[in-house]
Amino acid sequence: MSVRRLVSAFALAAAISACRRPAPRPPSAPAAIGFLDESALGTPKPGGTLYRRLEGEPATLNPLLQTDDYAADVIADVARNLIDLDKRLEPVGGLSDRWEVSPDGRTWTFHLRDGAVWEDGTPVTSRDAIFTFEKATDPKIPALLFSEGLEGFEGADAVDDRTFRVRFRSPYAFRIYAFNIPLVCAARNAGRDFLASPDDRAPFSNGPYRVARWRTSESIDLVRNPRYAGPRAPFDRVVFRILPDAVQAYRALERGDIDEMRLSTEQWRASASDTRFAGCCRTTLFYDLSYFYIGYNNRSPLFSDVPTRRAMAMLLDRGRLVRDLFFGTARILSGPWAADSPAYDPAVAPYPFDPAAARDLLARAGWKDADGDGVLERGGKRFAFDLLYGAGSTSARQVCEVFKSDLEKAGIVCRPRAVEWAAFTKRMDAGDFEAVASSWSGDPNPDLSAYWASSQAPPNGLNNLSYSNPEVDRLLVEVRGELDAKRRTALFHRLHRLIHDDAPATFVFQSAQKYAVSRSIGGLVTTPVGMFRFWPDSTAWWRRPAP
Amino acid sequence: MTAYLLRRLLLAIPTLAGIVLAVFLLMRIAPGDPASAAGRLAHRRFSRAAAEAMRRTYGLDRPLPAQIADWFGRAARLDFGNSFQDHRPVASRIAEALPYTLALNALALFLALAIAVPLGVAQARRAGSRFDRVSARVVFLLYSTPSFWMAMILITVFSVRLEWLPLFGVASDPAPAGWGAALLDRLAHLALPLACLTYGTLAFLTRLVRSSVREELSREYVLAARARGLSESRALWRHAFRNALLPLVTVMGLVLPGLLSGSVIVEQIFAWPGLGRLYFDAVLARDYPVVLGLTFVTAVATLAATFAADLLYAVVDPRVRYG
């Protein structure tokens, strides 16, 4: 091959790459967003391998020490929880099929399911459960995901081999979520450092699959656990491929190397005009419990008053964001829960986009441009601030840039700043910021006292915005002790109204989760907790025979 | 010579300690710690009590000098501690990823040298010719092409359009039956990452070889050799090329440690389970033991390579003597 030919081949390759992504045509109809339930459609065909994608490698598969989504995805197929949540987020039997609460709400009694066994055939016993609760509440064990829900743990004791009691110092209305916890095997961990447990690499299975092999940075292979007594999962094997690059994952999906992946909004748009994709895959969109918000440091002189914070919400053109950045696949919120949470009060309307009204509010709050430089001042302080967001999030960056230009028109200087996650968290927890843009990862537990109670303001807890309202504090305590679900909802709705009125943050919107799944896969169910991590997760999926 | 070797080896110890200490301090000056990094992959934050517990568990609440002394004490016995993430020994995590990075990078370097030396010499011999000018331009083009872009082009052409090569990974699942088929499968997986890692070094080395050979060819001793009636190739390979190797040896001393450092971008794109990804993930997770362990290994490799380059001078150039 001559040099000239080499050069022209190079140019050709460049040209191919340039036209790789054809300009997506605007969708003619709004995208269908909603939950999918194919659990009753078709007859599952047993056998074969399901190839799932992990966006990164789990730090550990120890069920108690897990911290990341990747580990959670794998563990969900391997370890049943003491109680599970179903597709409607209702508690259902897991390793335990019956439980009772004492009248004072402090003691919980669980009965382990007959036939619940570890992968070596030994039964799951009260001893395992007690071991698990003791480890999860041990201050020397970083069980970050579970220790908080078990606050006030007093002790656990066995009634017999299959029955045990867990005692707490006080009743808590949302305690049930603390039992959505996997168990670890006491015998396997006896006499060894729990931080060097074999569960780190291969959690001891009591679920439909067990870990056959974990090839670091490549894949985690699960095979059927023959001793599992529950419903038989259709696939013989599940291979989690660790594939960090999203562009590569999309191609792998098209080639059939993986069966599912989460799409970015951009990928979802591009897939609409990709004929190859349409031939092999389908997309499903739904809202989970997460949402995006812009929070203000309520202690900062800029944001310490309600009118200013309300004006911020009214200056952000959320309708345009939803239309232009998310192509209609997002919905605007008015309060601190996702719209599908029973705690969310649909009667509370979000602040409208109204720059004129916002300017009035700002003027009444004492902001004016006295020196004529185009930027508002109050008490000699210019209205200029850094808006921090976690580096690597494209949508956060886009929203922050839109907010910046919206605020500019009102004489407010907003400087979006990407901050690497560990540093971001550190500054959030220290309250060392003026404003942050971040996602709230939806938790089925609607209790927000750890995040909005004034006692939890930095440096004490996770009320990073230093929000303080005595009435909210009182209601947050009341709802924790209210054991009647209807009355709890009423209390939550009052909380929603109060927090909305104080506007400590702008609850921007929820953007729909977008998944692509191979057309050959049947049995999909999507839920407010997502596509996975409810019972039965992808263990109910199956592959349709090739036509 | 022995005294020189001994002096160099002894000098390496404080250098190594200095490098590790600098990285240790840098990691600790950087904002965040393992507890604040823990929720990054679930977009969660954990309660303060849980975070404090984690810091205590890993001994991060102790005074920094004590932590430093502790690390060096254990490192002296080649114990690099356990990872904060999966609690396995750092040494075994490194040992797991090392073969992948080493295989990929060693092959890339070998390939780069195998092409760069003849190409550079040919360019030098025909300096100013059309071949020299055109190939120099191609080499420059390659040198200034970012590897992530090249990776995308190669994948688009060879994996997506032509479907000749796999997209990612080190082997197919399930692996093809038979020894030969399995080897072929592994080679096919190696091809694209290898190409991405080779072309940059190749371009750089070609320029180096060309300029140093050219410089030597214009020297009087080459003219003298020709005048003595030596054949052109003998004058080139026996005389000019040998001297032209000296700068190449220096550069190899700098390139060799790269064999161990891995390439984050290429490993990320091709899902290659090497040291680059391990290092990158460890930094993001503030997994201090893994970061320090890898720093130690890379630092040792760097010192060893510069040392080896110094010794090689003596082999390549008889005038160099160490005393």
Task: Provide key terms for this protein.
heterodimer; A: 547 residues; alpha+beta; Dipeptide-binding Protein, domain 1; Dipeptide-binding Protein, domain 3; 6-stranded mixed β-sheet; 4-stranded mixed β-sheet; 15 helices; 23 strands; globular; B: 323 residues; mainly alpha; MetI-like fold; 14 helices; 74% helix
**How many discrete structural domains of chain A?**
2
**C-alpha end-to-end distance of chain A:** 44 Å
CATH superfamily of chain B: MetI-like
Order of helices and strands of chain B: HHHHHHHHHHHHHH
Order of strands in the sheet with most strands of chain A: 14-20-13-19-17-18
Q: Tell me about the biggest sheet of chain B?
A: none
Residue ranges of chain B: pLDDT <50 for 5 or more in a row? Answer: none
Per CATH, the class of the largest domain in chain A reads Alpha Beta
Quickly name the level 1 CATH class of chain B. Mainly Alpha
Tell me which CATH architecture of the largest domain in chain A applies here. Answer: Alpha-Beta Complex
- The count of β-strands of chain A is 23
What structural class results from the helix and strand content of chain A? Answer: alpha+beta
Helix share bin of chain A: 25-40%
Q: What is the overall silhouette of chain A? A: globular
